[in-house]
Amino acid sequence: MNRPKPLPRMLFISPRFLFPADTGGQIRTSQTLRHANNRWFDITLLSPPGDEQKYGTELSEVCNRFVPYRPLLGSGRLRELLRVLFLPLPWPVPVVSDFSLHLKRLIRTEVKRIQPDVVVYDFLHQAINLTTTKPDPMRVLFTHNVEQEIFKRQMSLDGLSALKKWVWKNQYQKMVAFEKRSVCRFDRVLAVSERDKEIFQNWHADLDVVSMPTGVDPEQFSYAPPDKGMTLVFTGSLDAHQNIEGIGWFLDEIWPLICQEIPDVRFKVIGRNPPQSLVSRHSHDDRVHFTGWVDDVVVEARSGAVYVVPLRVGGGTRIKIYEAMALGIPVVSTTIGAEGLELNPSEHFLQCDDPVAFSQGVCRLLRDRAQSLVLSQAARTLVEQRFGWGRVAKVFSEACQ
Prior knowledge:
The protein is α/β, with parallel strands linked by helices.
């Protein structure tokens, strides 16, 4: 009797515990691994510890073995990170915060123990933990952004103090050097869009880069026609700088224009850890509601008649747009918000970059329910046919073989 051929072995290194999967990076990584594990690869996952008991089922779906490691600092230890900022180090703060001697030792141990066919480092920052081992398996870098773009866009925003401009410029220059140097150290780089792939290859023409699509789960985000109410929704972690900046800009510059046109409009901001400064600044307006952490984003978002993505900084691709489209909520987004996604403006979403155009786009969809429905149906058809996580995992797995 012929035994089935064993699957190739993957050692996957994540900078964050993957659950709850409530950020774009966690969603992309966990869904990709879930669809690749035990189908394309036998996966061992290394990440910082989390609530392993609560999320035991989810962990068993994304990997066959989980090994926790200790980060050196961790993103939440503000005092240490500020100290790093002013040290004469060549690396930007987010990179230093992901450094771990414990992880480097674990990688060597696990490579020797399981002899993986491929080691995948998740996010550029993990390149600081890149380890040479003998025998050396294929090494892949899974990028979720062009990191230096985030710093460059933040540095270019109006209204920054001289100190903040200096900080962002300092960090941008360090990230440029680190990113351009690091991508060359891997056998293959995974990019989340053709646009990101072109940027990497413009730096190094011979760099081996594979472009991966962004995905969505059509069953989890089941379709319904747009709500007929007057509620705008946004979803995203509000401890992420790009989301804080975007919501602040929306509420300061765009929201007043919408309220002038449609006084009974409402805005629901769905996301964990909204900063108190942002909440307090708009506490006088009972039409604006910050939900904080919610158990089910899908349930909360379904009340939305229009989904807004007012992002002016950031990189990579926004999974939240595909999720809104799958749900049937018509989307109004900036160019940066929809960057890298295979979408046609005016066919799948409305693209607006200045406050007046953005407010007009939102008001048009609230008033013209026929156009709203056409946009909703076209967007759902697109993501359903082309952007399931199974397809994403197949591209990922083939690139890692």
